[in-house]
Amino acid sequence: MTRERLRIAYLCDMSPLDRTLYSGGNARIHDALQKHAGDVTILPQTWARAEPVRRLIHAMPEALNLRARWRAQYALRRVIARGIEAELQRGGYDVLFGAYALHALAGVRTPTGMVTAFTSDATQTVYRLSEVGRAHKRVFVVGPLLDKWVERRERAALAQADLLLWPSAWLKDAVTARYGVDPGRNHLVPWGANIATPPPAASNTLRRDAPVRLLVIGRNWSAKGGPEAFDTMMELRAQGVDARLTVIGCQPPRVHCNAHVTVHSQLNKAVPADLAQFNAALAEAHFMVMPSFESYGFAFCEAAAHGLPSLCLRVGGVPVRDGITGHALPPGADAADFAQKILGYLDDPASYARLCQSAREEFKTQLNWDSWGQTTADLLQEAVARKRDGSSDTAA
Ligand SMILES: CC(=O)N[C@H]1[C@@H](OP(=O)(O)OP(=O)(O)OC[C@H]2O[C@@H](n3ccc(=O)[nH]c3=O)[C@H](O)[C@@H]2O)O[C@H](CO)[C@@H](O)[C@@H]1O
Ligand SMILES: O=P([O-])([O-])O[C@@H]1[C@@H](O)[C@H](O)[C@@H](O)[C@H](O)[C@@H]1O
């Protein structure tokens, strides 16, 4: 049965047309909605009568801008929301879809019958209280004074939504517990790899007498667990394995560079030569070793797309399922533990081949944007139908 295409108003604090922002996630969410769910209109990111304040904050240094912008948007929500509401009244939309920026949804009153949905990989409060947030020192002195107020704002914004779509069970569970969101509105829908589906790869054979290639992908060496990945490589070498490390996305410090480390400090996937290098590095690697502290991590989905197992920590919302896409070791696991896992697979190549296959399978069934788009489209259709039934009951 062909379904009606929904009319979707897309709300974020940054344009999804810029494919670099939010690590590419904003653009992927927008595109997947357009492909699978309906006709998407991007709502303005301007702040109505408070626009001069937004411009002023954008002109501030990045570190301040990052911290002031979302808090100011909560504070000025009544003024900012009026601009969005005027757009919503004009457009005749079925759905208001918020991505990443819960503060952009704050205070927006939707016309009767419109469904509000939201997806993000964290809320500020869940992030702050988690092991990920606690790993970062707080530098913004005003921040802690506003924490309780922020949480109240988040709670109110989440209460406006009919559907909450979280990419990780970590976040879904935390939201349920922290804000008391009822489970019927809360759904786990994993985000996907920010690459086109690579051709099926024959899994790389893992042998003691050949190089074992490790990979790190990320713009922040320490947040991505780069130092531990380097130590894992050195630990394997100390045990007689010819381990090598490829780094994509940043320049490790001198202490983490040697003849066995290859660095591509920045690859732009929109540039064909860079994309070819990116794909080649994933295709030849044996393990992505990335004990990162983060709330999601697209690189894990990209590794799975290439049938490349990931080794990471069970911290935050990393999309790694134990024994399926790799192994998430308990927090505190160190280079010796990661090396041990790899040595275990070196002794059991058949189980390594199975792990590569199940990683690829997980990408095909879950960790891709078409799956996200299809599941989200189903959930949006149901929510729209429920709202329409509800309003016709009330009208009757
Ligand atoms: C450490 C940290 O705070 N991570 C967060 C940060 O992601 P962060 O940007 O650090 O990392 P992600 O893994 O989410 O994304 C990286 C993306 O950039 C791409 N890439 C990377 C390097 C490079 O040279 N070229 C390139 O194209 C990767 O292929 C991937 O698609 O924001 C994301 C949300 O927006 C969150 O989900 C992450 O939890
Ligand atoms: O320091 P602080 O403002 O409380 O918290 C910060 C947030 O405001 C910011 O949006 C995020 O990018 C930082 O990683 C950090 O979490």
UniProtKB/TrEMBL annotation:
<protein>
    <submittedName>
        <fullName>D-inositol 3-phosphate glycosyltransferase</fullName>
        <ecNumber>2.4.1.250</ecNumber>
    </submittedName>
</protein>
<feature type="domain" description="Glycosyltransferase subfamily 4-like N-terminal">
    <location>
        <begin position="30"/>
        <end position="195"/>
    </location>
</feature>
<dbReference type="InterPro" id="IPR028098">
    <property type="entry name" value="Glyco_trans_4-like_N"/>
</dbReference>
<keyword id="KW-0808">Transferase</keyword>
<dbReference type="InterPro" id="IPR050194">
    <property type="entry name" value="Glycosyltransferase_grp1"/>
</dbReference>
<dbReference type="Pfam" id="PF13439">
    <property type="entry name" value="Glyco_transf_4"/>
</dbReference>
<dbReference type="Pfam" id="PF13692">
    <property type="entry name" value="Glyco_trans_1_4"/>
</dbReference>
<keyword id="KW-0328">Glycosyltransferase</keyword>
<dbReference type="GO" id="GO:0102710">
    <property type="term" value="F:D-inositol-3-phosphate glycosyltransferase activity"/>
</dbReference>
